[in-house]
Every structure is written in C-alpha cells, then in structure tokens.
Amino acid sequence: MKQKITIKTIAKELGVSTSTVSKALKDSHEISTETKQKIQAYADLYNYKPNSLALQLRNQKTKVIGVILPKIVHHFFSTVIMGIEEGANKKGYNIMVCFSNESYKKEVETLKVLSNGSVDGLIVSIASQTLENKDFNHFKGLVAEEIPLVLFDRVVDEILCDKVVVDDVGAGYKATQHLLDNHRTKIALITTPNHVNVGALRRQGYEKALIESYIKTNKKLIVEIDENEDIKPQIEKVFEQDIDAVFAVNEIYAANAMRIAKEKGLEVPKDISIIGFTDGLISEYSSPSITTIAQHGFTMGKQAVDLLIERIENESELFKPKKIVISSDLKLRESTKPSS
Length: 340
Prior knowledge:
This protein is an alpha/beta fold. 45% of the residues lie in helices and 16% in strands. The chain has a six-stranded parallel β-sheet, with helices on both faces. Strands 7-6-8-9-10-12 form a six-stranded mixed β-sheet, with helices on both faces.
C-alpha cells in the first residue's frame, strides 16, 4: 500500500517549500512549468488528495476572525482586542479570542482548530515558548494553505505574512534618552529573555542611546525576567547595584520596580526615576504615576484587522506581504524628573 502523504511530505521529498507545493497543485502561474509537472507527477503517483472537508469549510465564509494572544494580564493586549473588534464589526465580522498562555503546544492546537473552517483568517501574537523553540512550522503551514494570517507585536521575518509592529528599537531609545536628558546615567534595564523579540529590540534602543552618550553598557544593570519564577526577587537584584533610573519594558515590571524602590526607602523621582512601557491604568494610577511609552495598541489592532479583511476579501490578488510599523509616544508623568 502506498503511504498516505501530505503537502509537507511532498515538499520534504522534492526539496521545495510547502507553499510551492500548494501553488503547484493549484496550477499557479507563479510556479515554473517544470516544477509544477514534477510536483503534480509525485502527487499522482502517491494518489495525493487534499482535505476536501477542510477546503470546503474554508471556502464558506464564516465572517469570524480568530485572534490568538499570549496572555490576558497585559493592558496592551486588551487594547489590541478593542481595536480588532471595532475594526471587524465595522466591516461585518465578529471575533473569536483565544489565549496560548505562552505555550507552544497550546498555540499549535488552537491554530489547528481555528484554521479548519471555524474562522476566515487569523490575527496572532506569537507565544514566548514558540519564539524560544524557534519552531514556526504551524504558521508556515497556514501560509502554504493560503489561510489569511496577520502577526502583530511579536513577529518573525521567516513567516511570510502581513505584520503590524511597534518601532520597538525607537521606543527603547526614546525612553532611555528621556532619562539621559534628565541627567540619569546609571540606568537599569528590566527586560524579557532575549528570545522574546520585542524585549530584545527595546534593549537595542536602550543600548543605542547609551552609546551615543558615551556610556558603556553595564550588564550588571540588565535583568532578563523569567516569568515562570517570582518576578519581584529578580527585579530586586538590580537594586543591589548603584542605579539612578530604571527602564522597564512593560507595565508590570515598572510597577514592581516602583514598589521595590519605595520598600528600600528611595523617593521617586528624587532618588530614582522610573519609566515603563504601555500606557495602562497601573501606570496612570500608581503613586507617583509612571512615565511610560504609549504603544497605541488600539491602533495596532485596527491596522491588523484591516490588513486581514483586505486579504480575506481579495484572495485573487497576487500575495505581497505588508509590514506596518507604528511609532510610539512618550507619556510624561510623575516618576521621572522634568528636564532642567
């Protein structure tokens, strides 16, 4: 009996991408005649049959958009959902929101369920564990099957789909430069592990601002938070160093830094300045209120859903991935000293 094969099997055997196989089997003009003949011959030999039920389900529009987020606790993701929902509803779509809880396995399973006809397209921010594993085959499979996909915030270049991101390098630079302008020179950075690319990019901006001010990066002033462990003790370590400012790459880290500073008898902003990321309620109502980088999550969600619906409703157009970069703003509050 001949083996049961899939698009992935054909791609592996012939040394081509799954996208090439998918397009060749649809007789796409983008694939050369020679490659199409080779792929179609192999598919015929092994009696390859596409999943007709899945195809039928996908060809029937549900007017539902799937959204997969890493977690719910961050204010940023809640504002993104609001932007997605408003943009979707205006164009007659509803949204279905799921959470990966930073798990690679759950992300794979959720994508599999949603892409089998439950939704017309997907908007996703990649789970931390997926970024750490560097295994993106579940996303590449969606692209190969031409299921509309938009990635936002946490994205990777090797997944060929539309993307919406914040200028994270520029935002990290902006935050650090504000502290430098206020005569802070011993600036601690509280960030994510390096595999979470948004944190890594914000770190690049931080280091760029320091270099331009002729300040050498001190690795002892940088802490990468492992969120599987208690956050507070990890942040406390940086307060053992001689610091006069803290830049935290999200709101939760900034709030923890504020709490620890107070526990150590430091007055904010007189003794130490603190700046965070994401303009949420925690930043606004902390005492003192926290200066922050506003990410414009609502705008990001709106842009993401507009891109996705454009892709859903114009399937016949030649696919050229788009990348939208949204700039951020510095929101000045009480936790940083005013420029003198």
